Amino acid sequence: MKKAVLFLNFGGPVNTEEVEDFLYQLFSDSDGIKIGIPAFMQKQVAKIISAKRAPSVQEKYDQIGGGSPLVAMSQAILERLEKECPEYPFYIGMRYTTPTIEEAVLQIKRDGIEDVLVIPLYPHYSIATSETSFLELKRAIDFLDAGNISFRLLYQWFDFKPYIKALAERINIGLKEYYDGGTVPSLIFSAHSVPKSYIEEGDPYQKQIQKTVGLLLKELQWTGDWKLCYQSQVGPVAWLGPSMQETLELYSNIKDSNLLVVPLSFVGDHIETLHEVDIEFANLAKDLGIQNFHRSPSLNTEESFMQCLVELVNTYMNIDSVGIGWSRIHK
Hints:
The protein is α/β, with parallel strands linked by helices and 331 residues long.
């Protein structure tokens, strides 16, 4: 039986010309972004939102190099794992940009693959990330008549020990900057927020984020100050908090505040780390009088994370399905 691995990721515009279409694909996704209107109407609203927001978002991408590094990073992961696990072909499907999930399924079908382990590059399960990607995968399978291929879904891996160790390694690199200067910072764990309504629907994201933080604190043997907050809230709905801004304000009146931000929920650099944290929140911290504000480096294609993914593949390749969500996705 020919086996393979399919990674799923968010996607991102590789240049500023792709920004408006990226935003349209994102805001027209009625599975991942629920705004309470019929799907066909959401596509019309998405056109308006994407056209309105594109210029300011393009400006942000210009400030971080002209595009998102997420697609290139995902491709680099594939190339690395093809060398580490030569017995399996690897594919990548992006939810909102090319190479799309549908394109990946088509190539898998053309290559005569019979059994696919599907790994989202989101360690934490959420309606807004993993679930919408799995639903898009199901649509692609149906559209391309690929139902004879076995697609086995790894729903989440937020507590996978090699992942925790890889994250802890990156945090220790960030801590070293402070330790070398004789200071111990507060750790600020920051995850991408989701609407509170998702949590009320049964989305396990918040609990999984909290569990990851607990495992990291244990791995680091951390006894110092820390906080968990959420970023990237957009629009008038109620979002999971506290926000990063609210958290930074807690330190505004504390003399000699030293903060190390630890991004969670995405494994690679993207606009939320390179611009929102490194530029927007860094400027806010400065305005609030916070003495030092740094971010731990992302996992990207670092050796420890590559070995984590190798272990994920080797651990779950021969398991039928893992985790939660089956009843939600396969209705």
